[in-house]
């Protein structure tokens, strides 16, 4: 009987732990900010999406190209860690970027088994073109709230990153300029 009670208690504890946290009231849910993030993201990626469609590329191609262009020599393992996607997903996208001449994969200088990724001239041009579209949108938004708000916005966005990943992400931003 004690085993049954212990199992039931463990089951109840597991059920409570896996339930989504419930806010105290509907007013505690920042619906306006949630929706603004949805719409901002839609438009932020929408401009590049239209250009990427001309190449039969999608958002995954954009993310890969962005990080490869920003960090020449990035390894596949590092890229997988940044993007938090499966190797299978990355391989398909990377293969297309390599075959179309936007990214090249070079043998590692230290470890011949390692593959270092580099944007080609065409890859750099496309990545910069896409970044300029997004920069235009960011700069327009900062003009509305004032350029001094950029630091606050950066802290806010950093606060949205999973705390377990935040330090690593922020550290990688500092090293990519």
Automatic annotation (TrEMBL):
Transmembrane segments: none annotated. Residues 1-19 have a biased composition (Basic and acidic residues). One of its GO terms (molecular function) is DNA-binding transcription factor activity. SMART domains: HTH_MARR. The keyword Cell inner membrane does not apply. InterPro entries: HTH_MarR-typ, MarR/SlyA-like, Tscrpt_reg_MarR-type_CS, WH-like_DNA-bd_sf, WH_DNA-bd_sf. The keyword DNA-binding applies. Residues 1-24 are annotated as: Disordered. It holds the Pfam family MarR_2. One of its GO terms (biological process) is response to stress. Keywords: DNA-binding, Transcription, Transcription regulation. It comes from the Bacteria. Residues 30-162 form the HTH marR-type domain. This is MarR family transcriptional regulator. It comes from Bosea caraganae.
């Amino acid at each position: 009987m004690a085993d049954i009670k212990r199992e039931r208690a463990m089951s109840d504890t597991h059920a409570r732990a896996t339930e989504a946290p419930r806010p105290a009231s509907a007013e505690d849910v920042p619906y306006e900010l949630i929706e603004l993030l949805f719409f901002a993201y839609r438009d932020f990626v929408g401009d590049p999406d239209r250009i990427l469609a001309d190449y039969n590329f999608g958002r995954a191609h954009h993310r890969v190209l962005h990080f490869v262009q920003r960090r020449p020599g990035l390894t596949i393992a590092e890229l997988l860690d940044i993007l938090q996607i499966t190797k299978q997903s990355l391989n398909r996208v990377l293969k297309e970027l390599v075959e179309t001449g936007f990214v090249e994969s070079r043998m590692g200088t230290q470890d011949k088994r390692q593959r270092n990724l580099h944007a080609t001239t065409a890859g750099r041009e496309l990545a910069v073109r896409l970044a300029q579209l997004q920069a235009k949108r960011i700069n327009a938004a900062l003009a509305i709230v004032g350029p001094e708000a950029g630091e606050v916005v950066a802290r806010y966005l950093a606060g949205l990153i999973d705390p377990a990943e935040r330090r690593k992400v922020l550290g990688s931003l500092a090293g990519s300029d």
